Every structure is written in structure tokens, then in C-alpha cells.
TrEMBL record:
Pfam families referenced in this protein's UniProt entry, alphabetically: PrmA (PF06325), PRMT_C (PF22528)
GO biological process: methylation
UniProt entry keywords in alphabetical sequence: Methyltransferase, Ribonucleoprotein, Ribosomal protein, S-adenosyl-L-methionine, Transferase
Claim: Ribosomal protein is one of the keywords in the record: yes
Lipid metabolism listed as a keyword: no
Single GO MF annotation: methyltransferase activity
Name of the molecule in the record: 50S ribosomal protein L11 methyltransferase
Stored SUPFAM superfamilies: S-adenosyl-L-methionine-dependent methyltransferases
Protein arginine N-methyltransferase domain: residues covered: 207-340
InterPro entries: Arg_MeTrfase (IPR025799), PRMT_dom (IPR055135), SAM-dependent_MTases_sf (IPR029063)
Cellular component aspect of the GO annotation: ribosome
Length: 359
């Protein structure tokens, strides 16, 4: 019997196989933007013909879309790794019998750190199938597969005892973006507290703060806005510019800070949920200038005394979060600026009242 994509069994190894049809299927799925499904289709081919060049390339193209490229930069961020390692050692040494839950395993790095520190049981969940599959291999290759079990699921779909033998005693997670909340840490930890963690579980990170600073910077503003260029008015293109934030390194762009850093949010992950918040501030500019952008960053406490930050000047892979203002107002030291910091549980953004209202 020739196997077609409709009759393909879940297993990769199959008896007879219409490779051309599966290649076309993979390509179709890719074109539909279903990159994880495309990768799976190509893996079926590679299961029977591991040298199939078209399938290898197709798989790699699909994975390139599905898996963000920041994983590598993040894994090379030594400060991030060292501080997590230090904090994990401290938490595991305090209770080696703790069942550890790593939410968002990625390569399995933090889960393996917990195992290396002496944890006897670690469950590491990863919501992206290609990443989860790779984590299984990394953990096996490193020889930690007797301690670390990778669950290829979003934590919010996990159950006790289905995926975790019991509620975990130590949560280790690093699901933060440059603006802290963008990977859903608030809702994810709140869900874990309710469904996956023991009542007195240690939560790492346990606190975080977000800071913001007013910035004048033509080069940063240019990353998100155009006007008259090459003899044309390209301004309508700004309809596509980013309304919220993007990541960039403040110190690599010519800029002047127009205020002190301001603390805008303070989260305690042991109690916080993903409810929206707003903080209203009257900011006194420290010098006159054009307010092109709000730069913001976080400080995140892993265990007491061990903090990670992506503040300006720190060479973290997160860089800083930059929100450009579409129409940058002029600000003066004498005139406080009304700045509102908002989040809806996942997206941080800022509103700046028009200059005349802030006088
Ligand atoms: C920033 S990476 C960190 C990876 C790894 N923990 C490390 O520190 O090297 C976050 C990973 O978490 C995964 N992820 C995010 N939220 C998740 C959730 N709620 N459940 C499972 N995986 C999640 C993402 O797919 C991504 O691979």
C-alpha cells in the first residue's frame, strides 16, 4: 500500500511513502503560514529518507519561521544564564526534594540547571512543538533524561496528575520579553499558582519592576517613521508603523534622556494576576527637547539578592523596549508631562497627553 498524507500514521517510520505528495503538502502548509505543521510534514519524510534534500531544506525554512531567532542570542547571554544558575542552585539546595516545574523550557537549559543543582524531579513544559522536540534531544544528550521530563505543551494546558505527578514546589520560568509582559508571564504564573503549584511553592522570578524614561532620539524615531524622502511624501506609510514597542539598544543610537528613570509598574508574581493596570504620572523633564520615544526596561528578582535587568547600558540580549511617539512633542523642564503607563496583562504601552494639556 502507498501511504498518503490522509493515511499517514503518527509514527515517523512508515512502510511505503509518496514522497512527492508529502513534499507538496509541506510546501502547501508553509504557504498557508502553518509552519509547525509544515515542519511536521517534512519530518515524516525525513523519518523514511533522512537525507532527502528537499525535505531538509523545507523543514529548515518552516522551522526558521516557527522558532524565533532570539533563542540563540538569549542562550549566549551569560549574565542571564549565570544569575538563573545561581538562583536555581540556591532554591534547589534549600529543598532538593522539591518537584521543579520549568515553564517554557526552550532548549531545556533551566531545567538541566535544576537537575545539575541536585533536584530529583524536574518537569519542563514547552509549548512550541519543534522546540519541545529539540529540548528532549538536548536533555537526553546531556544525560539528564532520568531527572528532567519534557512535556510538549503550553503550561496552561497541563494538568495534575496528567502531566505533573503532583503540584510542583519550585517554579522556574523565563518567559519575558524586553517589555517584561509580552510573553504572558502574568497570566501564565497566575494559572500555574492556581492549577500546578503547591500553595507554598517558590516562584522564580518572584518580583519585577518596569522603569521608563523619556528620550529624544531622531535615529530611534526613524526606525518607525518616515516623512518626505527622495522627493516623495511617504508619510502614509506610517500607518504600518509600530504603535506599541519594539526592541533596540538605546546606547547604540544617538539620544538624550529628557527625564530620570521612572518606576511605572511593580509586580509580585506570588500574588499578581493579569488584570489590566494603569499608572498616571506627571513627569518633570530634566531638559528641553523633542520627546521622540519612551524607553523602558525591567528589573526582575529571581531569589532575594539575585536580580536581572535589561536597563540601558547592560548588554543583555533583551535590549530595551522602545515606544516611539507618532508626533513627538517639545518638552520643557518647567512643564510636567502627563504620561500614562498601561498594560492589559500582556502588552505595555504609554500614552502622552498632547503638549498643550500638559502645560
Ligand atoms: C524566553 S524562552 C526561555 C527558554 C528557556 N527557559 C531558557 O531560559 O533558556 C521562552 C520559551 O517558553 C515557551 N513558552 C512561553 N510560554 C509558555 C507556556 N505558558 N507554556 C509552555 N511554554 C511556553 C516559548 O515557546 C519559548 O520557547
Amino acid at each position: 500500500m502507498t501511504l498518503t498524507r490522509d493515511t499517514a500514521p503518527a509514527q515517523d517510520a512508515v512502510p511505503a511513502f509518496d514522497v512527492a505528495e508529502f513534499l507538496a503538502w509541506g510546501s502547501d502548509l508553509h504557504d498557508q503560514g502553518r509552519y509547525e505543521d509544515a515542519a511536521r510534514a517534512y519530518r515524516l519524510i525525513l523519518g523514511v529518507d533522512r537525507h532527502n534534500q528537499e525535505a531538509l531544506l523545507g523543514h529548515n525554512r518552516a522551522v526558521r519561521h516557527a522558532v524565533p531567532r532570539w533563542h540563540w542570542e538569549m542562550l549566549h547571554d551569560e549574565e542571564r544564564a549565570e544569575r538563573y544558575d545561581h538562583a536555581i542552585r540556591r532554591a534547589v539546595t534549600a529543598n532538593p526534594d522539591a518537584l521543579v516545574l520549568d515553564i517554557g523550557a526552550g532548549s531545556g537549559l533551566l531545567a538541566m540547571m535544576a537537575a545539575r543543582a541536585g533536584a530529583r524531579g524536574v518537569v519542563a513544559c514547552e509549548g512550541q512543538p519543534s522546540v519541545a522536540e529539540t529540548a528532549v534531544e538536548v536533555v537526553r544528550t546531556a544525560g539528564y533524561d532520568d531527572t528532567v521530563r519534557v512535556v510538549p505543551k503550553m503550561s496552561t494546558r497541563m494538568t495534575v496528575p496528567g502531566d505533573l505527578p503532583r503540584r510542583a514546589d519550585l517554579l522556574v520560568t523565563e518567559i519575558v520579553d524586553c517589555g517584561l509582559l509580552g510573553e504572558g508571564i502574568l497570566g501564565t504564573i497566575a494559572h500555574a499558582r492556581e492549577h500546578l503549584l503547591a500553595p507554598d511553592a517558590t516562584i522564580m522570578p518572584y518580583r519585577a519592576r518596569v522603569y521608563a524614561q523619556l528620550v529624544e532620539s531622531v535615529p530611534l524615531h526613524r526606525k518607525n517613521h518616515v516623512g518626505k524622502l527622495h522627493g516623495f511624501d511617504l508619510a502614509p506609510f506610517n500607518r504600518l508603523s509600530t504603535l506599541e514597542y519594539f526592541d533596540s539598544r538605546l546606547h547604540r543610537h544617538e539620544h538624550r534622556t529628557l527625564s530620570e528613570p521612572l518606576r511605572v509598574f511593580d509586580f509580585d508574581f506570588r500574588t499578581a494576576d493579569a488584570s489590566p493596570q494603569r499608572t498616571e504620572l506627571r513627569v518633570r523633564p530634566t531638559s528641553a527637547g523633542r520627546l521622540h520615544a519612551i524607553a523602558f526596561w525591567f528589573e526582575m528578582d529571581l531569589v532575594p539578592g539575585v536580580t536581572l535587568t535589561n536597563a540601558p547600558g547592560v548588554e543583555s540580549h533583551w535590549k530595551q523596549a522602545i515606544q516611539c511617539l507618532p508626533v513627538p512633542p517639545l518638552v520643557q523642564p518647567g512643564d510636567p508631562v502627563a504620561v500614562t503607563a498601561l498594560h492589559d496583562g500582556r502588552h505595555v504601552r504609554f500614552e502622552v497627553a498632547p503638549a498643550e494639556e500638559t502645560a
